[in-house]
Amino acid sequence: MTAELIHRLHFAFTITFHYLFPQLTMGLALLIVVLKSVALKTGSEQWDRAARFWGRIFAINFVFGVVTGIPMEFEFGTNWARFSRLSGGVIGQPLAMEGVFSFFLESAFLGLFLYGENRISKRMHWFSAVMVFVGSWISGFFIIVTDAWMQHPVAYDRLPNGQFEVLSFWQLLMNPWGLLQYAHNMTGAVVTGSFVMAATGAFYLLEGRIENYGRIFLKVGVIAGLVSSILIIFPTGDLHGKYVARNQPAAIAAMEGLFHSEAGAGLVLMGQPNEETGQIDNPIVVNDMLSFLIYGTTKAEVKGLDQIPHDQWPTALPLLYYAYHIMAGLGTWFALLMIVSAILLWRKRLYTARWALWALLLSFPLPYIANTAGWMTAELGRQPWLIYGLMRTSEGYSNTVSASNGLFTLLGFMGLYLLLGILFTVLIYREISNGPEAIAVDTARID
Amino acid sequence: MMGFIWFWLVAVMIVGYVVLDGFDLGVGVLHLFLVRNEAERRTTLASIGPVWDGNEVWLLAGGGTLYFAFPLLYASAFSGFYLPLMIVLWLLILRGISIELRNHVEVGVWRALLDGLFGLSSALLTIFFGAALANVLRGVPLQADGYFFLPLWTNWQPGPHPGILDWYTVIGGLVALIALTLHGALWLSIKTSGELEDRAHRIVTPLWIALVTLTMVSLAATIVVRPASLNNYFNYPFTLVVPAGVIASMAGIWLFNRKAQPVKAFLSSCLYLFFMLAGACWGLYPTLLPATTGAANDITLSRALSGPHTLAAGLVWWGFGMILAIGYIVFVYAKFRGKVDLHANGH
Known about the structure:
Helix content of chain A: over 70%
Order of helices and strands of chain A: HHHHEEHHHHEEEHEHHHEEH
Strand order of the largest sheet of chain B: 1-2
Radius of gyration of chain B: 20 Å
Distance between the termini of chain A: 58 Å
Largest sheet of chain B: 2 strands, antiparallel
Radius of gyration of chain A: 23 Å
Number of strands of chain B: 2
Mean pLDDT of chain B: 92
Largest sheet of chain A: 2 strands, antiparallel
Number of helices of chain B: 14
Shape of chain A: globular
Low-confidence stretches of chain A: 440-447
Number of strands of chain A: 8
Shape of chain B: globular
Oligomer: heterodimer
Helix content of chain B: over 70%
Strand content of chain A: 5-15%
Structural class of chain B: mainly alpha
Largest interface: A-B, 74 and 70 residues
Low-confidence stretches of chain B: none
Structural class of chain A: mainly alpha
Number of helices of chain A: 13
Order of helices and strands of chain B: HHHHHHHHHHHEEHHH
């Protein structure tokens, strides 16, 4: 195994595991604000307890996000030193801003939210929840700004020593790629939060216990799930896809499995890309659809991989193709399931429709897979570039850190994260089994 | 000028991290042997529960600031210190998980395991941080291209081919362990009451004696290992106020602890950490990372500094952001001020 591959796997593994947590943090932060707002407006103790219950799950999830997030900032330097040396002046800024503008805010108000409920007023407690939400969403923004600059570098200059320098700070933050990606990504986080909340509600109703809370979770989860599952496709996914098509033609061709340029290109729903023959095996295709989706007309020509020099093809082409198709396929399922669930909710039949409750319960892992697949699409689509068009991945890793040392720490992370994954699952399972009533009793005693 | 400003801004972030996360690391070390029962342990952990996470943010924000202000230093040091940094990351992960999950576990055996992990990871982190600073002061085998790679240890000598650990950096690690444990003991004597407070108060004396001894040894060792550390002090004699501050703050810790004024003793300990770190930074300036392979390979301020636009933009948002951040921090500490009362504190 080459050092380049090890360093790529190192970052890919640790960031993939890390992002399992922030997507729930960001989605749930919004839903907790919803619960707290209803509680504040109606004075309902039940909604307050619901918020407290999700606050506990949020706290566990948050800590896993924090501890797996710290390595990410370090790895820019440890594993990608040559990249950091040249690009630090640009992407170091949003990364530092994340700490200064988001983490201080988030950690301060989360401390108040979790530990301070009886030291502050109800309104202040609600405000803490809002600030935790704001902090976590600011954090997401700066990470997206960082990634967007690597995907679509803007507002930079090069110093004589080769380093990148920010020319316009405002343009760096307002990178159009970043804004679209942010909208799409944050909606994805809300999808995860909604599905987790709805699945928990479905679990309680199917079990026939704590049903009053089950109904609250289902209602909030399904409504937020409906809105986010639609927004994730249209307009955020649609606009983001069109922007990728215009700016990274190699990525879109590989994602769609389009080996040959075509006027009236078809949309491949299924099939396996065959790099040797340059075809899709066992294809199921909707004619003209790809041209329409990208350019709004069925006759437009879409650039295929044949027009792109082979050394600029994404390096893991089949994986990129599958990641994209998994994301898009699951996204379709989310919209269908949430539309049906919302109709049932509106018709007041959701709470007794066991088949729908089962579908919601079993679907909770899927947004995690879809969000992960979406990020794989973005990052594999950028290959072979580290900074699109400017710096190749092979030029960025730390060449003083040998493959052996990299493998040593990668294995260490794998072992540690296996342990963390088990621990997380057990803890969350216990919280959900205990339910909101268990905490309510505990808190009442302390009050 | 920009270089001077950003050098000291990064130094401020490091001091902020050490002073703030320092006491919760110290509490982590102490809770291994200072507490006698479950209630005391919960009190001890509750004294840092709402703040440890925010304290750790200083490390991240400081790292980010270093990254964009001095990309060469960030790239070189982080890849060169690859192995110890990865160990630090693993320790930070174990520590964060163990303190936070303790609240969610009721079984005694698991609690004992998490407590042990929390104490051990806190202790090892203080040692690693101290050793890391000592590595920077001693210098590393930088090549002409600005990179190096250090093994964990070689022959334990701070010569031209050192490892992360040698006799000098081990002293640095011990200074940090004792200084932060003392810092944590003073925090506990502010935040706790009764027998626990007494014990925290009493343990300060032996820790203080160890601290004074180790501080003197480490200062002497630094002069032996890198005599150039003294240059700035000889060229600008008024800066000898920094070592004088180290001595005065150590005296302050002793005095105020004896008079049972824990807040003032704790502030003296903050000053001690500040003077020690500022003294180390001033001993280096304008070098950021000295080379053991000859001064031509040193990473200096001017060599590592980012472009002018980057730094100018950074100055604006950094100043604005840190004022906001200090606002929240003061607010949270004010909300949680006073002795920990388990019954009022929940969780």
